[in-house]
User: What shape does this take?
Amino acid sequence: MKSFYTVLVLVLFSLNAFGQKFDLAKTPPMGWNSWNRFACDINEDLIRQVADAMVATGMKDAGYQYINIDDCWQGTRDSLGFIRPDPDRFPSGMKKLADYVHSKGLKLGIYSDAGAHTCGGRAGSRGYENQDAITYAQWGIDYLKFDWCDTKGLSAPASYATMRDALYNAGHPIVFSICEWGDNNPTQWAPETGHLWRTTGDIHNCWDCEMGFGTWSKFGVLNILDKQNGLRKYAGPSHWNDPDMLEVGNGMTYIEDRAHFSLWCMLAAPLISGNDLRNMSKETIDILTNKEVIALDQDPLGVQCYKMVDFGDYEIYAKPLANNEVALCFLNRGKETIKVNFNWKDYPVMDGMSGVSLDFSRDIYKVRDLWLKKEIGTTATPLKADLQPHDVIVVRLFK
Ligand code: GLA
Assistant: This one.
């Protein structure tokens, strides 16, 4: 009898866990995170101002929701082991901050680490998973990014499952973002454990570069893009590949930012902006709030793009969409302008994974350019355009 009740309790717990998991992040999460622009230089005023800016700039209206505090918010643990925020940087406490962010119709995210210390050397969650999860629930935290520093000898699947269960048992709905940089075969366990998992090391705000720091590297847009090949079959509603946060507005050119944003939308990536939302150029706002490009990312079919054509510096990506539609992204990786002359009839879209199939010899589709924001013709005639270095043309086809 006792074992019957034990089994019943376990079943109820896991139903609760999986119920919560599948209710959240049905489309890739959208928000902001402090790390790319501010690193450890954060405090509660900044977080409040960013929340204000997310509303004032139209980002909230475009779908962004989460205000995520990354590393370095932590102070010390109290005598019972409960984590407290840094009293100098977050003097009002996290509950008050969460209340403020919620009052704007937004959600608050936080960061911790599976090891004893975070990557920034603050207190990690190892051995305190349940206490931390309860604390986050009491504060009203809606999103947790869980990092992988100081974890020598730990099993990633087991550590992340421990935190997942702690979060769900704490009872407050929370998006769980796995950040072990793709080092422990996350595609084999992360889809059951979290809503998103990093596929690579950290992003850097460059088009094509790798910056080495001894034991680890940061990667540019193209470098991260190329590491996504072969991963699309692991992603879908409530479980997303995460090619890291956005660098839009952090120093690349307008064209590069636009290409970076388009590619992340094609990849059905979480759209977590990483710039200073309080000081954005009009161009940066235009990129981050392009609703038609965002709609590709947030498409309910939840299917990541694939590389349809590879001509070296000239690549074409296809993203199957709901209702048998498709988006194509023409990318110029190189330094010379490309003369695009794309005869649709030579390139039917046939995606076995999603079942989306468009035969341009049989059917004619209208072609809408999502950056020009206008129709540019149909698939009956070839698409002709000059594609500038590092630029994209993103089109959506519809009947
Ligand atoms: C790691 C993560 C980054 C960021 C830092 C914080 O490098 O990959 O995204 O969270 O830690 O220290």
